[in-house]
Task: inverse folding
């Protein structure tokens, strides 16, 4: 597959804004996606561990983590759509080819995800009092976790096949005989997948620090439970750091030849430093963890580390496709569309900021209050503003559509 | 752009050129990306396979190549086994863009022959479920 062919697979209409915008947003949103995925996987695993334990603290943690996992799945899905859109804009020759070559799995992805999610909910409904009653139907949670990993595996294969254009023709037409069935997952890297999945341990540890800090803010919480969480979070963070470094090193050691440069690149060093900083940060903080909002900081630093990792992952793709295959994702033809570009950023920054800010603040404050929570007047104004902005958005959307149609 | 990815006219606003002139000059097998090298030139040995490749890339997104599914291709030819006749039809109707609902699909002699070979090899479903060129649907 030479460069001319790759370029021929591009969308001839070009893209509505500069490709760098799609590239950067792709990295940022993918970091958020994988963070949510890792919280979900980590919380699921903790749920399972707690569900098989008799220890009262573990059981309470399991009850909290199943609700976390449940929400994290939907966040992971929503935040999976964004990088999906960005990657298919600037890497369409690669993304679509990879998808079509494994078409049945792409469709199966949705079915498997639905089953995984249903299994999780089934477990949740079977165990309304996980903290105090024996676990029922634990197999549902096992099934959910396994199916979620299958979903992640499909995503991994789709991302990985993109990087191997030299093999596409062999997959489409083995020995020159066309097989358009899309039955197979053609290429994978167990070590790469393991790295992204095992990172869940450190991410869920960071999450536990934040969870603990959150409980500390609630009047009348069980101090014994809060104290029990701390060493657990520390131990998981340490284990997670070790696992991430070990699996990351294995991934780098098993890179195919054309990607071998990546192993010693600055991208890897930056990622390693970011991950290690995140892993040691809670220890550096020490007692500070219990002061002010510092208890949330490990998760914040963890998120930054994930952005660095996401950037490195993108560099691997960008440079491999440019260097080995002559495809420059940044020279995409631009047909600048000011309206959609500005609408996107205004929606993202203004509506996203105000509406999400309002919802998250209310959720957080309500959780920190015992009894009935009444928002402050300022917060109520923010709520009204959110509704106003949403209405305005919907009106302008149809108004512009009507204007364009009537013109 | 048609759903078989062929751009059939210029779109000056987006700086898009029609691909029809290129296809008329060089053909599909030479210009499509996903064609195995041994099928890029039609010869008596590979005509059937080349025809399948053409059907996959230029027809199959609208016509199923099996006897079930959406608008099975075989059903539109009513079991016709005359390669030359099918080839003439393809070049006369499709090649000129004169078929209702269907894109303009220019096919040179070799490609029309290969595609006709492939179409003739298909088995139409026993009971045509759609109106065919040969037998109008019974109301
Ligand atoms: C809920 C279970 C899911 C898991 C465990 C999961 C896991 C993963 C993993 C491990 C990767 C990285 C693969 C690699 O680079 O090797 C990935 C990438 C990706 N995921 Fe997910 N994912 C899940 C759901 C989703 C959903 C529902 C969507 C879309 C709606 C999605 C969209 C994406 C996209 C677009 C990428 C690749 C982005 C790129 O190549 O730039 N994921 N996912």
Result:
């Amino acid at each position: 597959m030479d460069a001319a062919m790759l370029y021929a697979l591009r969308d001839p209409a070009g893209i509505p804004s500069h490709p760098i915008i799609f590239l950067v947003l792709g990295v940022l949103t993918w970091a958020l996606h994988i963070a949510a995925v890792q919280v979900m996987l980590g919380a699921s695993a903790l749920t399972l561990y707690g569900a098989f334990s008799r220890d009262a603290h573990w059981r309470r943690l399991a009850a909290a983590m199943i609700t976390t996992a449940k929400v994290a799945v939907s966040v992971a899905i929503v935040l999976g759509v964004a990088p999906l859109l960005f990657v298919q804009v600037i890497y369409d020759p690669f993304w679509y080819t990879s998808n079509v070559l494994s078409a049945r799995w792409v469709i199966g992805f949705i079915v498997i995800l639905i089953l995984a999610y249903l299994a999780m909910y089934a477990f949740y409904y079977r165990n309304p009092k996980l903290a105090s009653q024996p676990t029922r139907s634990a197999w549902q949670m096992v099934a959910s976790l396994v199916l979620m990993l299958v979903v992640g595996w499909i995503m991994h294969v789709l991302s990985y096949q993109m990087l191997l254009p030299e093999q596409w023709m062999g997959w489409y037409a083995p020995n020159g005989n066309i097989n358009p069935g899309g039955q197979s997952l053609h290429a994978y890297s167990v070590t790469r997948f393991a790295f992204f999945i095992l990172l869940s341990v450190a991410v869920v540890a960071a999450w536990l620090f934040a969870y603990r800090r959150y409980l500390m803010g609630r009047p009348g919480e069980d101090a014994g439970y809060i104290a029990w969480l701390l060493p657990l979070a520390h131990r998981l963070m340490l284990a997670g750091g070790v696992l991430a470094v070990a699996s990351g090193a294995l991934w780098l050691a098993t890179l195919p030849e054309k990607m071998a440069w990546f192993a010693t690149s600055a991208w890897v060093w930056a990622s390693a430093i970011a991950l290690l900083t995140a892993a040691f940060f809670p220890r550096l903080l020490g007692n500070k963890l219990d002061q002010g909002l510092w208890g949330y900081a490990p998760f914040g630093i963890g998120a930054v580390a994930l952005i660095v990792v996401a950037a490195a992952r993108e560099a691997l793709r960008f440079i491999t496709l440019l260097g080995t295959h002559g495809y420059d994702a940044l020279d995409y033809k631009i047909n600048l569309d000011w309206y959609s570009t500005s609408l996107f950023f205004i929606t993202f920054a203004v509506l996203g900021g105000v509406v999400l800010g309002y919802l998250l603040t209310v959720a957080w404050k309500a959780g920190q209050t015992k009894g009935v929570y009444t928002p402050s007047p300022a917060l109520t104004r923010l709520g009204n503003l959110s509704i106003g902005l949403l209405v305005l958005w919907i009106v302008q959307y149809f108004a512009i559509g009507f204007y364009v149609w009537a013109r | 752009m048609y759903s078989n990815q062929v751009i059939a006219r210029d779109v000056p606003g987006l700086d898009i050129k029609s691909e029809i002139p290129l296809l008329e000059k060089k053909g599909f097998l030479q210009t499509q990306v996903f064609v195995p090298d041994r099928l890029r030139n039609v010869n008596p040995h590979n005509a059937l396979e080349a025809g399948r490749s053409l059907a996959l890339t230029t027809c199959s997104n609208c016509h199923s190549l099996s006897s079930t599914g959406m608008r099975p291709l075989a059903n539109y030819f009513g079991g016709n086994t005359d390669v030359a006749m099918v080839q003439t039809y393809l070049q006369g109707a499709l090649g000129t863009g004169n078929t209702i609902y269907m894109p303009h699909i220019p096919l040179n002699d070799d490609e029309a022959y290969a595609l006709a070979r492939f179409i003739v090899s298909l088995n139409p479903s026993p009971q045509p479920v759609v109106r065919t060129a040969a037998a109008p649907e019974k109301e």
Q: What stands out?
A: Residues 135-139 of chain B have pLDDT under 50 and may be disordered.
